[in-house]
Design goal:
The protein is mainly alpha-helical and 273 residues long. The chain is built from 12 helices and no strands. Helix 1 (6-22) packs antiparallel against helix 2 (27-43), helix 8 (183-197) runs antiparallel to helix 9 (200-217) and helix 8 packs parallel to helix 10 (220-237). The protein starts with 5 loop residues before the first helix and ends with a helix.
């Protein structure tokens, strides 16, 4: 920025923040880094990047418990109900995709499966066409697929199961073509798909594979999610001891990540059971 190439510098700053979040960087550190980076963007009048960064900050604040909301991007950093980028702006499409990814992440993380699944059915193909090479596509498919399979079980509606399978197939294609970042998603979405079909032994193998893969890659947030999903699987199939075991591990991992609100909600779930 000091050299004068503000646009390139802001894109780099924005991308670093997002990638750090998507690979499971410490939420405590990322919260501070988002605040500081947003201030710099505002100083240099990079308003669209500023708003996208603040949307990401709102996700972190929701996860950390620094917001009254969980499943909506509404708080001190960002309000999803407000229009902050004009429709004729040349970055409006990218801004919309980024904000929708953040909406999907909080819907998935806080188990608003209906909202996440409906967003995914409506927008997934558009995302694949609009930003085909984006680093955000894998987490979009990961969280969208989790919401679709979960809501397919909750609602008994086939279209969400079909969308989940379509997204799982896309991750499998990318993995076959050498993408190393799809393994956890392929395993965990595969487990959820088998659970939907009642193939429980196969589901259990894939849940365990997703946990191992996330741990091997150092993706603490995905390891936490995989443990949480495996706990929910055991709770649904009547094995309360294993449900508690994997829930406790999810709580430990979420706490290490810095997702204090997730820890609070899972502890409440443990108490209720």
């Amino acid at each position: 920025m000091a050299a004068g190439d503000v646009e390139a510098a802001v894109w780099s700053l924005f991308s670093c923040l997002n990638i750090s979040f998507l690979i499971g960087g410490s939420l405590r550190l990322l919260e501070a880094e988002h605040f500081e980076s947003a201030r710099v963007m505002l100083d240099f009048q990079q308003n669209v990047h500023y708003h996208m960064t603040m949307a990401g900050l709102q996700v972190i604040m929701n996860l950390r418990g620094n917001s009254s909301q969980t499943t909506r991007l509404i708080g001190d950093a960002y309000d999803e109900r407000q229009i902050v980028v004009e429709q004729n702006h040349d970055m409006v499409t990218f801004h919309t995709v980024v904000v929708n990814l953040h909406k999907l992440v909080v819907a998935s993380c806080f188990s608003d499966h209906e909202r996440g699944a409906k967003m995914t059915v409506e927008l997934a193909m558009h995302w694949l066409r609009t930003v085909p090479g984006s680093y955000g596509l894998i987490p979009m498919i990961f969280h969208g697929g989790l919401c679709c399979f979960a809501y397919a079980r909750e609602s008994k509606t086939r279209k969400y199961y079909r969308m989940g399978r379509k997204l799982l197939g896309k991750l499998k294609d990318w993995e076959r073509h050498g993408c190393p970042n799809c393994r956890v998603g392929v395993a965990l979405l595969g487990a959820e798909e088998r659970f939907c079909r009642g193939q429980l032994k196969e589901a259990e193998k894939l849940y365990e594979e997703s946990i191992r893969s996330a741990r091997k890659m150092g993706n603490i947030h995905e390891e936490a999610t995989a443990n949480e999903k495996y706990s929910a699987y055991f709770a649904d199939t009547g094995d309360d001891d294993k449900a508690r075991l994997y829930r406790a591990e999810a709580i430990r991992l979420y706490k290490e990540w810095g997702a204090d609100k997730k820890v609070e909600l899972l502890l409440l779930l443990e108490k209720d059971r």
